[in-house]
Design a protein that fits this description.
There is one protein chain. By secondary structure, the protein is mainly beta. The chain has one domain. It contains two helices and ten strands, in the order E-H-E-E-E-E-H-E-E-E-E-E. Strand 9 and strand 10 form a beta hairpin. The protein is globular and about 50 Å long.
């Protein structure tokens, strides 16, 4: 019997941060905006987070910013999900093996962030874009159970792989 090859679907930015946007807020994230039209530059607000992870207020809700511009994939977990930011490593099977080992590691850095996933329908894309300006191949659609999630971080390495991990774990 053939086994299914596990693979990751990655998206990338033009060099800036990613935004994880609850889709009910999609009309309120403006990317680089338009100064001439008086549309706010949300992308510039991501500078306050640098290459870390943080929350920004958006019209009565929050978006999660992943400041590292590394190519990023999402992996669903029973208690939330995992964003895999690949620094080094080309083979999905090797990357998956490294983050599966990292999931069992107790050395995750807990943050003081709690992200509200809203109704659970989200998209991850380049924060320089407004949602409607991102093409399908430039965004990851993410599904989580509605509710709040604690944010944790971890760096994992193996011989040919280095990844930054951002875990969303259902808050209790």
């Amino acid at each position: 019997m053939a086994t299914k090859k596990l693979s990751l679907r990655y998206v990338e930015t033009e060099g800036g941060a990613f935004v994880l946007l609850p889709l009910e807020l999609k009309k309120h994230w403006h990317g680089i905006g338009d100064e001439d039209e008086g549309v706010v530059n949300d992308y510039a607000r991501t500078d306050s987070i640098g290459t870390g992870v943080g929350l920004l207020d958006v019209k009565g809700g929050h978006v999660l910013i992943l400041g590292s511009p590394e190519v990023t994939a999402f992996w669903p977990l029973s208690d939330g999900g995992l964003f895999v930011q690949r620094i080094m490593g080309d083979e999905d099977a090797e990357v998956i093996a490294v983050f599966e080992n990292a999931l069992a590691d107790a050395r995750w850095k807990k943050t003081n962030l709690t992200f509200d996933a809203g109704n659970g329908k989200l998209a991850l894309f380049d924060s320089a874009y407004a949602y409607e300006d991102a093409d399908d191949d430039e965004l990851l659609k993410v599904a989580l159970a509605p509710g709040k999630y604690k944010v944790e971080m971890h760096t994992a390495k193996a011989a040919a792989v280095e990844i930054e991990l951002v875990r969303l774990r259902k808050a209790t």
